[in-house]
Amino acid sequence: MEMIIDFPGGARVDAHFGGFVVPTDQPPQGGGESSAPTPFATFLSTIGTCAGIYVLGFCRQRGIPTDGIRLVQRMQSDRMTGLVRDVQVTIELPEGFPAKYADAVVRAAEQCAVKKHFEQPPTIRVESVLAG
Fold first, then answer.
1. Which of 20, 22, 34, 106 reaches 20 to 30 Å from 4, CA-CA?
2. How many Cβ atoms from other residues are within 10 Å of residue 70's Cβ?
């Protein structure tokens, strides 16, 4: 997979891939206009949205309606480094959700590919090339 990252103006940095555009921006104090989430917020959102797709698939396979189900993601950062040190995803199940599936839906969410990549992170290399 290849992504093209470009700079459409201001503090915006957008990713293009597979016919999609993922826009990002900075808040005004960072020189942006808050026209889109920051790259870091977009990155963090992949944890909950990935877990959510597994919850959705679990429910669809069993004919369980997803009305009233929501995932709440909370992060805690290390005060010294500013890095996120803890992520908690809570799956809120509505009244009427089959109790026998409460633990199983958690196991389904834990299959998320983003979570697995956090647990075994890839090597990231950055390089530059001059045109010409």
1. 34
2. 13
CA–CA dist 62, 102 (Å, integer): 13
The predicted structure's pLDDT at residue 132 = 82
Percent of the chain topping pLDDT 70: 100
Q: Which of 45, 63, 52, 66 is nearest to 106 (CA)?
A: 52
Q: Are 11 and 33 in contact (CB under 8 A)?
A: yes
Q: What angle do CA 12, 18, 24 make, to 5 degrees?
A: 15
Q: Could you give the CA distance from residue 87 to residue 93 in angstroms, rounded to a whole number?
A: 19
As a whole number of angstroms, the distance between CA 6 and CA 62 comes to 42
Q: What is the pLDDT of residue 3?
A: 97
Check: CB of residue 89 under 8 Å from CB of residue 49: no
List b or e across 76-106, with b for residues whose CB sees 16 or more CB atoms inside 10 angstroms. Answer: eeeeeeeeeeeeebebebeeebeeebeeebb
Q: What mean pLDDT do residues 7-22 have?
A: 97
Tokens of 65: 């309606």
CA distance 91 to 102: 9
Contact 54, 32 (CB under 8 A): no
